[in-house]
Amino acid sequence: MPAFTITFDDVATGAVADTFKTIAGIQTEVAAGSRIRLRELDIGPSDDTPVDVNVALRLKRILDVSAGGAGGATTVPPATTGVKRDDQSQDPPANGKRDYTSEPTVYETEPLWKGEINAHGGAIKFWSEEDAPEIGLDALLGLLAAPRTAAAVKLSGTLTYETW
Amino acid sequence: MPSYKVTFDDFESGVSDAYKTAVAVIANDDDQARFRITSVTVGPSDNTPPDANLSVVLHRIADVSGGTAGTAAATIASGAIQRANVNSQDPLASAKTEYSAEPTVYESEVLYIMDFNAHAGLPREFDRRNAPVINRDQHIAIRVASRTGTAIRCSGTIEFEPI
Question: How much is the pTM?
């Protein structure tokens, strides 16, 4: 079962307390059989000067990207080197999304997962096959972050996902 | 399954987001050479710990023979690579540590990135099914960069096994 990643480097949260910004995401193709599940999340602070701020993390889903409102971001296509953990594996049925310039507006109301870190720490989270957040075709799984006080925090990390 | 380990000690990171290669595993140009990275460990080793963030990436060179693979302080031949069981066969790989001149032919995307404060450390096990893979004539390295203009010293280990 091939594994793929989308990495994000030095991405700033917003500077408004409790207001979430999408840090990175995975968007599946509009094709039958396109489905992925998130197996690993790594996220840590990358500020030049570390700050003592708590950061809320969320995983949220968009179920119908084609209907609009999925925001604007840099797309990292499947064939880009480094995206495949084994460069001899097939391409995934998904693109990576990062460096959002406009936020998605159509997330589901309830997050799939919540976590919190301090900006002097970080988080490494694994999901088993049975527990992993999933998306089917034409969907987006976003990682969102918000500072708990009015100060932006920069974050770097990796989303690791697989097909099945 | 044999398990191989390569360490680096008190290596000075790059500064201001400029990555330096601490250690690399290089698969032989042999069709039997294929490995996965099972674990990466990096932690700070400064005499006086700074309050600064360190970025760690795993980065691949897809074709070592085709390019400039940099200059390392030490090359560890296959037979000298440390292993969990001293009686294991030699891997179809070598390793290099503590680069003084960076390879110029890394892929554009990193395989993995994680940042942490230099008062902490990063022990990262990879699920075998999702582990980064080193195919023949490829190089995967741990590279480190301080997020600020002050270098951070670090030590650690990369562990790998044949597939």
Answer: 0.94
